[in-house]
Design goal:
Blueprint lengths: L7 H31 L5 E9 L8 E8 L4 E9 L9 H15 L4 E6 L3 H9 L4 E3 L1 H16 L6 H17 L5 H14 L33 H10 L2 H7 L9 H13 L8 H18 L35 H14 L4 H8 L10 H11 L1
Parallel strand pairs: 1-4, 4-5
Antiparallel strand pairs: 1-2, 2-3
Helix pairs in contact: 1-10, 1-11, 1-12, 4-5, 4-7, 5-6, 9-10
Organism: Nothobranchius pienaari
Protein name: Si:dkeyp-30e7.2
Length: 376
């Protein structure tokens, strides 16, 4: 067809000269406004999580996202390169450290933070004496896998009957407790409950709160001293698990952050080979899109809510709430910024890009030659 189009070099030149500076300027302005408003609040609850390349891919970059849980708003994104922090295992801690330094430098008073159970993150936040909560769903997910494996054993068939109830009990323990010790007491009471014992010796939780009922299936109760009960007790009362139950989040969870990470995969796929600034700009675009559409209203379809049959629900059929179509006003604002300001005077915007500490993938040629010479 003999169609003419721009080459990749021309595209990269336009992107680096106009689009990327406009995206970074727009994100910095929105972030500054958000942080300024947070300085006026006394109790800010944040959530943090990292999205990184999975094993088998490059595992070069890790994106650490911080969300204001009360507003359901992304307030910071840190892109960490693994070989600059000593390996991919250190990316999450480094991203969290950078984000907390930014929040503290901006005058934001963080009341607590909600994350997954990562030992490095636990130790880091403990040293900073920050109130740290754990996401309940992630703990329930790990526990569910252990219960599923245990229920497959021939002498542990009763575990299958209690699987869902035990997971629901974990969620119930996370809310409505005045202290972490009460959460642990409620959690340990499940061992009595599954034996049809509803009066407990722990004064923090002396008895079950449900009404007395006659079971239709008397065979579901565990017998004291059986091998199945002992094995289940070992799963439910490990030292680390009880310690983490004490710190279960009583209010917000990181499910919103996981929704944002799903949006990240659309803007910056894990298998896409992108330069550092290029990937960072895509992350900023995803954050602006999420912040604009996170709390958009729901709509009711004319034929009712659709039912889903996800494999993870093991036969469950939850209804899916449908939201209105997302908007893209941030895109029109970026286009307006490019053609009214950046094109006419790109230098101030390019200077803002140059202030970003971009890690270099390759050393200078002279340094590489000198390093090889010292090895010989």
């Amino acid at each position: 067809m003999h169609l003419k189009t721009h080459t990749d070099d021309v595209f990269r030149r336009h992107v680096s000269s106009y689009l990327e500076p406009a995206i970074i300027h727009s994100w910095n302005a929105k972030q500054c406004t958000a942080l300024q408003s947070l300085t006026e609040e006394d109790q800010v609850i944040i959530g943090g999580d990292m999205c990184a390349d999975s094993p088998g891919r490059s595992a070069k970059y890790g994106c650490y996202s911080v969300m204001n849980m009360q507003r359901n708003q992304i307030i910071d994104i840190q892109l960490v390169q693994s070989n600059k922090v000593g390996g991919s295992n250190h990316m999450e801690k480094e991203g969290l450290r950078r984000s907390l330094e930014l929040l503290e430098g901006s005058g934001v008073k963080v009341e607590s933070i909600i994350t997954e159970r990562r030992p490095r993150v636990q130790k880091f936040l403990s040293e900073r004496e920050m109130k740290h909560y754990y996401d309940v769903r992630q703990m329930a997910k790990g526990l569910s896998k252990k219960l599923h494996r245990l229920g497959k054993d021939s002498n542990c068939g009763q575990v299958k009957k209690w699987h869902k109830s035990i997971i629901n009990h974990l969620y119930w323990c996370a809310v409505g407790c005045a202290s972490g010790a009460e959460k642990v007491s409620r959690w340990k009471s499940i061992l009595n409950h599954i034996q049809d014992i509803h009066i407990h010796s722990d004064p923090a939780f002396p008895k079950c709160l449900h009404r007395t009922r006659v079971s239709k299936d008397p065979n579901k109760w565990f017998k004291p001293g059986t091998a199945a009960l002992k094995r289940l007790e070992r799963v439910l009362t490990t030292k680390r698990f009880l310690r983490d139950v004490e710190n279960l989040s009583p209010h917000y969870q990181t499910s919103s952050l996981e929704s944002f990470h799903s949006e990240l995969l659309r803007s910056a796929p894990k298998d896409a080979v992108l330069p550092f600034i290029g990937r960072l700009c895509r992350l900023y675009l995803a954050a602006m899109h999420y912040n604009e559409n996170a709390d958009r209203p729901r709509k009711r379809p004319s034929n009712g809510y659709p039912l889903l049959f996800p494999e993870a629900k093991n036969g469950g059929h939850p209804g899916k709430l449908v939201k209105k179509e997302p908007t893209n006003f941030y895109v029109f604002n970026l286009i307006h910024l490019v053609f009214t300001e950046v094109v006419h005077d790109p230098q101030p915007f390019v200077c803002a890009v140059m202030l970003i500490d971009e890690p270099q993938d390759k050393p200078a040629l002279d340094d590489a030659v000198a390093a090889c010479a010292t090895l010989q």
